[in-house]
Amino acid sequence: MEQQKKISLGVVTASVLLMSTAVIAGGDIAPIKTESIGIEQLKADKPKRQMRGNMTLKYNVLPPKVNSLSEMFTEGVFYGRLRSNSFAWDWETEKWDNETKKGLKDNENMGVGGSLIFKSGVLNGFSVTTSYYGSMNPEFLRMDKDEVAASKAGKDTFSRYKVATEGHYGIYAAGENFLQYNNGAVNVIAGRQLFESVFTASNDTKMIPNTFDGVSASVKIAPKTKARLAWFGSQKLRDHEDAHDVITFKDAEGNSWNNNDDAAIHRGLNYNNFTAAGEDVDHDLIVADVQTKIIENLKFTLSYLQVPGVVQDIVAEAHYKVNLESGWALRPGIRYFQQMDDGGGAIAGYTNLSGKEAIGYDAGVADSLDSSLFAARFDILMPNKQGFFRLGYSKVDDKADIVAPWRGFPTGGFTRAMAQYNWFANTETFMVRGVYQVTPELKASLRYAIQDFDDNKKYVLADTDVWHLDLWYDLTENLQLKGRVGLVTADPGDTGKADTSYNEYRFEINYLF
């Protein structure tokens, strides 16, 4: 029965896509009128939802306050999204073993599908949000089933575990499903949710967002000051249908695709190592932060994370804006990330993020996750939000690697480019970036990063130069095209490290209704 439901959803999604394509070909699609049901129109001249540059969604229309339980559902609002993501990954040198199905192989994948989100009306501060996401993978643009392990960026358009165990592509999952209470000063969410912080992110750049199961609360504690606290008992990465542990790599059967297999996972923190140490393989994730803008032009955030018995983090971040009379502005910013071992170092042993022996790491800090990261940036902002120029820098302490499998990216917004993980110990990165609104419909972003990894660390990448170009084009206020190109050149030198140079190409279509 469950399989029939999934097949039916796939057929319905495909039909909607085809019908929408036909309508789009004939002209713009008029947004749904909301005045008839009293919906709260936050911005009358904007569509129901808009995509930000990082693909998170901004809601311009929200359901109204209602007077009864039945009105919560009759006055609720549906938010739809049709999307397509295509990926091509071209290694400079392929090194694929057909017998073991391991190594480097050129790969391509495509996801076609979308999501439907329902937000109920608000009764005495209470409301409900529920959603369903689906992604299908056309046969003409995907890897053979026995080669799914070669998939890189496109792996998040399907479930590798599902292909390996059930023999077919596609992914269907519950996205946001939660109960919410919001009285204006206090906002509490219980259930599966998105949670954007310096540690965690929805990272919705593929087909299905990264979500967390638990409870979060936000409270206004002073003027222009907000505090948040969250407890999450599990996580659901973008290429998973079901939730899994927040930090344990692999499951009891040794399957790495059925637990937290995020690209940034610490593979030394795996199922076998936890059980061998007599520790639980099910963990909690606690996140808290305080953000204030009480000082004019200064945004300051202090954040805390803990996975009890494994690791703790404290991050301080500040950005200060200096407005110039010409309309331009300057905005320096810093981030300091302190990672503290809470028992995870002894469990992982003398290993790095790869789960292999930490050759080249300081033996004096072996069996510890203690480390830190410093990042800084300097922005020059153009008048009228036309764009900005950025110079970024980051340096990781020569101790442990930074543990961050929750899609928040420790160097994000400073030096991280597409598909890059530059928070191995003793890694230094410089980045230059420019963003410009070419026309009202077209925006472009170009980044160049120099990543200096530690040559003495064996299981760490070789030094790389990265070019990363993004282009956004709004065909209508509801329909957006996005292209991305990443060109990565590795320089192993005489280190003996592998040449992992590659070119990556992405194309995305999003229609919101």
Folded structure, characterized:
The chain is mostly beta strands. Helix content is 9%, strand content 42%. The strands form four sheets. It has an 18-stranded antiparallel beta barrel. A two-stranded antiparallel sheet has the order 1-4. Strands 2-3 form a two-stranded antiparallel ribbon. 40% of the residues are buried.
Provide the number of structural domains.
Answer: 2
CATH fold field value of the largest domain = Porin
Determine the number of helices (DSSP H or I, runs of at least 4 residues): 5
The SS-based structural class is mainly beta
Radius of gyration, CA atoms, in whole angstroms: 23 Å
> What is the first-to-last residue Cα distance?
30 Å
Q: List how many beta strands DSSP finds.
A: 26
CATH architecture of the largest domain: Beta Barrel
Please describe the biggest sheet, giving its number of strands, its sense, and whether it closes into a barrel: 18 strands, antiparallel, barrel
Could you report the average pLDDT, rounded to the nearest whole number? 91
What's the short version?
The chain is mainly beta and 513 residues long. The protein has helices at 2-25, 69-74, 160-166, 271-276, 344-348, and strands at residues 40-41, 49-51, 57-59, 61-62, 77-91, 95-97, 102-104, 107-119, 126-136, 171-174, 177-182, 186-193, 211-222, 225-236, 285-292, 298-307, 311-320, 322-323, 329-341, 371-381, 387-396, 428-437, 442-452, 463-474, 479-491, 502-512.
Helix/strand layout:
Elements: H1 2-25, E1 40-41, E2 49-51, E3 57-59, E4 61-62, H2 69-74, E5 77-91, E6 95-97, E7 102-104, E8 107-119, E9 126-136, H3 160-166, E10 171-174, E11 177-182, E12 186-193, E13 211-222, E14 225-236, H4 271-276, E15 285-292, E16 298-307, E17 311-320, E18 322-323, E19 329-341, H5 344-348, E20 371-381, E21 387-396, E22 428-437, E23 442-452, E24 463-474, E25 479-491, E26 502-512
Antiparallel strand pairs: 1-4, 2-3, 5-8, 5-26, 6-7, 8-9, 9-10, 9-11, 11-12, 12-13, 13-14, 14-15, 15-16, 16-17, 17-19, 18-19, 19-20, 20-21, 21-22, 22-23, 23-24, 24-25, 25-26
